[in-house]
Design goal:
Shape: globular
Structural class: alpha/beta
Number of strands: 20
Radius of gyration: 21 Å
Mean pLDDT: 89
Order of helices and strands: EEHHEEEEEEEHEHHEEEEEHEEEHHHEEH
Strand order of the largest sheet: 2-1-11-10-8-9-6-16
Strand content: 15-25%
Length: 359
């Protein structure tokens, strides 16, 4: 169930708890409106792991970055910051145990991953029979249903086209139906996260956020390529491969291992068809790539097309997935004293040893 301002949230919807009605009521709740205004007025922090970027450096602290359709649950004793970005029609969901500080961040891109994804996120945040207070934040998604009218979703109540609204509705409906108590503290989505240009076109205000597990503080955040790590390109490819893998249906990708504070990127395979598609897409213009690969082509970040091309370049250079995952072994990354990530030499050596043994 959902609590707002310390009391149970009551909607006027039916007992079956339709997500759209719950969402619309939550969007008008004075406490959440105030919280969204405060979040909107918070300066966005821009992160980099590079010394020459001029941005705020994450080197020296321990951070975990979450890609689309991934989730990570972090222990405040091991991790200083956890966050995600690149969310336009996606939604970032943060759940924090107020007592232990255990924090899970998921980057949800479809209503199909909400129910199982929430179960995955809660698995390490709370004990099965625990009743700890759970703080919840939702950031991302914007009014993508009508680019000329950012109030259309709320004023019309019938125009639920687009990607953001159905996803947000599914999230709040799932939270409300749960036996757990979720204290919703931030709902910076849809019109709360929408701005307009001079021609009335809608854009998201923020595409990402960062949470400090030890305190529960949340703030808008943006990351450059060096801080979206480790194994950025392979994890992006892992995402695209998961859509063709039935074992990941309805689930968020698991790449971060909470107890060991390591990234363990499980082996995935790319098919000949995927390689053919990569070659074909690589020949498209930037505008065609945006139209083909994005749910919101007019509002993507400047590096969206470049990120797509780097994935396709990798696939062209490494058509055999055995080069990336020898003997189907995961790619393991451990933390350095400075907080950066490095590929585990033990994991590499083990895979190469097994490969030599079989040849």
């Amino acid at each position: 169930m959902i609590y707002v301002g310390g009391v149970p949230f009551q909607s006027d919807g039916p007992s079956s708890s339709e997500g759209s009605k719950i969402l619309l009521a939550l969007m008008e709740h004075p406490t959440l409106v105030s919280a969204s205004c405060s979040f909107k007025s918070t300066p966005e922090r821009k992160f980099s792991a590079s010394e020459d970027s001029g941005l705020e450096r994450v080197t020296g602290c321990k951070w975990v970055y979450v890609f689309q359709r991934e989730y990570a649950t972090v222990d405040p004793a091991l991790v200083d910051l956890v966050g995600t970005d690149e969310a336009t029609t996606c939604v970032g969901l943060a759940i924090r145990n107020h007592k232990s500080g255990m924090t899970s961040v998921g980057h949800l891109d479809s209503p199909d991953v909400v129910e199982i994804g929430l179960t995955q996120m809660l698995s390490l945040v709370v004990d099965q029979n625990s009743d700890e207070m759970l703080e919840v934040h939702l950031v991302g998604g914007f009014n993508d249903s009508s680019p000329q009218d950012t109030d259309s979703v709320i004023s019309n109540h019938t125009d639920h086209s687009g990607f953001s609204f159905p996803l947000c509705a599914k999230i709040v409906e799932t939270l409300e139906k749960s036996d757990r108590v979720f204290h919703l503290q931030t709902l910076h989505v849809l019109e709360n996260n929408t701005r307009q240009d001079s021609e009335g076109n809608a854009y998201p205000i923020f595409n990402g956020f960062m949470v400090e597990p030890s305190t529960g503080s949340i703030f808008p955040a943006n990351f450059d390529r060096t801080s979206r790590c480790p194994d950025e390109v392979v994890r992006r490819i892992h995402l695209s491969s998961s859509y063709k893998d039935p074992s990941w249906n309805g689930r968020l990708l698991e790449t971060y291992d909470t107890p060991t504070d390591r990234f363990v990127i499980g082996p995935c395979a790319w098919t000949i068809r995927q390689l053919q598609i990569a070659r074909r897409l690589q020949n498209l213009s930037d505008a065609e790539i945006l139209r083909t690969c994005s749910t919101s082509p007019s509002v993507e970040a400047p590096d969206f097309v470049e990120n797509q091309r780097r994935q396709w370049d990798y696939l062209k250079k490494h058509p055999d997935r055995k080069e990336t995952f020898p003997m189907k072994q995961p790619r393991i990354f451990e933390r350095t004293p400075s907080g950066r990530w490095k590929r585990s030499p033990v994991a590499r050596a083990d895979a190469e040893s097994k490969l030599c043994t079989t040849e």
